[in-house]
């Protein structure tokens, strides 16, 4: 334990470097070839870490792929301030299952722009000849796509305002407005378009990004959407590293253990994976040199991860909270929830998956159980339960549909949906209130209240979220059975009966 703490910034890097590994490369020689929207925990634990690894290998091409982070939402002002005071440096701490900590200072983010301060500067950064890739972790909801039709929602106020603002960059507030205006400027200047690389947990994230940006371009100008579809590359990717939100305890841990004063470190699990389609229009860094799987078709990897990891996370979230588990490792090792989740993976998720090149699915699931159970990561069931209305329809409903179509069992998936509906009633089994965090909170909670009255299927009648599942008796029978169990016998007894 160091005898004094040092503020993290470029000037103090040598001192910090006597305690933890720091970038050995010359950050001043790094150009931001990547502009990233959504600099949160995950981006800093994953993509920025891979680029930091590449820069550390002294690969000549790497120095063209530093990152310029961009914040779009007003809440990103805190990241702006942290980045400014720390010269964009931050501490990444891997938490191993045995309790050991693996720290590193990451240096691949070399600039940060806050769009509300100066949208024109963001557009010019995007339009600069040095920018080759625009990457995104703007969350599942950030693509502004209708859950049922999959189409871009054109009447969202901020989107409509950006479409009306056109090339008046000073008025732009959304990622769509900023990125499309930059593409227009590049076209006018004879520069090739950058690649738009989504790193969000969405099946076909590249396809969905293309749908969203091209539809926005169409709003701006006739035929612009067609140009985007034709000329801009949108690789699909599967990204994986469990990264909880940073807490005050993490800030204190970094100061206590490593003597570093870092206002916003990132802590995460040691596991990391990135499968990426090789579809880049303006060049890409040699990511395969640092462990990224560059593959012709990412879909098998995506489905494996979304249906086994993310959908299981949903089971851990609601059942976990109903069983009083605040932390995910407690939920994942609970004697009744653990076998239920494994049975969901084996009997319902796995039959919907195609073989994944080079992956033994049984081993993958064993590893997932270990990862979920890592007691040091301290991920919360509350994080996993947030924004459920963006997650269940995208991760679990497709599993249900595939199994119904094939005549297979859906009772565990139905129970997970029922656990969400029970959770959304907003009161737990001890009468304590549950805080539901969801952009569709009012609607979801109102439906959950109605299911307590004379319409037990009220929750499922939201066709935007569940489509026509409410019309399928095989699903509704299983759902009602689980919901009755949750109401009459409680979560534990229901899990024991249904696993
Ligand atoms: N945390 C993880 O374990 C993890 C793992 C794999 C993938 N992901 C993906 O990364 C996303 C972000 O996760 P995180 O843990 O970094 O969250 P976070 O809350 O730390 O960061 C999210 C960032 O996205 C920005 N953002 C949100 N909505 C936006 C919008 N509409 N437009 C522009 N920016 C927007 C926020 O301002 C913030 O900077 C997830 O939604 C998921 O798709 C996360
Ligand atoms: O971040 P989200 O909203 O996509 O989903 C919540 C978690 O399931 C997710 O963050 C996982 O931890 C992550 O996908 C692991 O790679």
UniProtKB/TrEMBL annotation:
InterPro entries linked to this entry: 6-PGluconate_DH-like_C_sf, 6PGD_dom2, Mannitol_DH, Mannitol_DH/Oxidoreductase, Mannitol_DH_C, Mannitol_DH_CS, Mannitol_DH_N, NAD(P)-bd_dom_sf
Catalytic function, reaction form: D-mannitol 1-phosphate + NAD(+) = beta-D-fructose 6-phosphate + NADH + H(+)
Entry keyword set: NAD, Oxidoreductase
Classification via Gene3D superfamilies: N-(1-d-carboxylethyl)-l-norvaline Dehydrogenase, domain 2 (1.10.1040.10), NAD(P)-binding Rossmann-like Domain (3.40.50.720)
EC number(s) stated in the UniProt entry for this protein: 1.1.1.17
Main enzyme class: oxidoreductase
Molecular-function GO term, any one: mannitol-1-phosphate 5-dehydrogenase activity
Pfam family, one: Mannitol_dh_C
Taxonomy, superkingdom: Bacteria
Domain Mannitol dehydrogenase C-terminal: from-to ranges: 297-480
Residues covered by the Mannitol dehydrogenase N-terminal domain: 33-288
Family assignment from sequence similarity: Belongs to the mannitol dehydrogenase family.
Name by which UniProt lists this protein: Mannitol-1-phosphate 5-dehydrogenase
Species whose genome carries this gene: Quadrisphaera granulorum
Lineage of origin: Bacteria, Bacillati, Actinomycetota, Actinomycetes, Kineosporiales
């Amino acid at each position: 334990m160091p005898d004094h703490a040092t503020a993290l910034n470029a000037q103090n890097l040598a001192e910090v470097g006597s305690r933890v590994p720091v970038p050995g490369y010359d950050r001043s020689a790094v150009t931001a070839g990547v502009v990233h929207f959504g600099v949160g925990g995950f981006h800093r634990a994953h993509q920025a870490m891979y680029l930091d690894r590449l820069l550390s290998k002294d690969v000549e091409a790497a120095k063209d792929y530093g990152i310029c982070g961009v914040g779009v939402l007003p809440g990103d002002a805190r990241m702006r301030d942290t980045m400014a005071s720390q010269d964009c440096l931050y501490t990444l701490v891997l938490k191993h299952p045995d309790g050991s900590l693996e720290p590193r200072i990451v240096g691949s983010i070399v600039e940060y722009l806050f769009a509300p301060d100066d949208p024109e500067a963001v557009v010019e950064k995007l339009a600069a000849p040095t920018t080759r890739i625009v990457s995104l972790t703007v969350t599942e909801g950030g693509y502004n796509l209708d859950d049922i039709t999959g189409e871009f929602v054109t009447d969202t106020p901020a989107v409509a305002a950006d479409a009306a603002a056109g090339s008046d960059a000073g008025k732009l507030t959304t990622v769509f407005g900023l990125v499309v205006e930059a593409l227009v400027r590049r076209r006018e200047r004879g520069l090739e378009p950058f690649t738009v690389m989504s790193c969000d947990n969405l099946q076909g994230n590249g396809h969905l990004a293309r749908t969203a940006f091209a539809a926005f371009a169409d709003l701006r100008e006739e035929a612009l959407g067609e140009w985007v579809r034709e000329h801009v590359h949108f690789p699909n990717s599967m990204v994986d590293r469990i990264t909880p939100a940073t807490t005050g305890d993490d800030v204190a841990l970094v100061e206590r253990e490593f003597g570093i004063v870092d206002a916003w470190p990132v802590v995460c699990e040691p596991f990391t994976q990135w499968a990426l389609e090789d579809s880049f229009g303006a060049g890409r860094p040699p990511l395969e040199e640092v462990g990224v799987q560059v593959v012709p078709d990412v879909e098998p990897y995506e489905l494996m991860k979304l249906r086994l990891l993310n959908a299981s996370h949903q089971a851990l979230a609601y059942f976990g909270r109903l069983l009083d588990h605040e932390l995910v490792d407690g939920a994942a090792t609970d004697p009744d929830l653990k076998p239920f989740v494994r049975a969901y993976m084996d009997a319902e998720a796995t039959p919907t998956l195609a073989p994944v090149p080079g992956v033994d699915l049984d081993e993958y699931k064993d590893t997932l159980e270990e990862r979920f159970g890592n007691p040091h990561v301290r991920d919360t069931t509350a994080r996993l339960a947030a924004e459920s209305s963006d997650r269940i329809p995208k991760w679990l409903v497709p599993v249900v549909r595939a199994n119904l179509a094939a005549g297979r069992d859906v009772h565990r998936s139905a129970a997970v949906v029922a656990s969400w509906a029970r959770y959304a009633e907003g009161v737990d089994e001890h009468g304590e209130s549950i805080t539901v965090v969801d952009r569709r909170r009012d609607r979801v909670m109102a439906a959950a209240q109605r299911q307590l009255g004379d319409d037990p299927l009220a929750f499922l009648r939201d066709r935007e979220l569940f489509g026509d599942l409410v019309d399928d008796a095989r699903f509704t029978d299983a759902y009602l059975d689980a919901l009755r169990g949750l109401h009459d016998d409680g979560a534990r007894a229901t899990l024991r009966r249904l696993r």
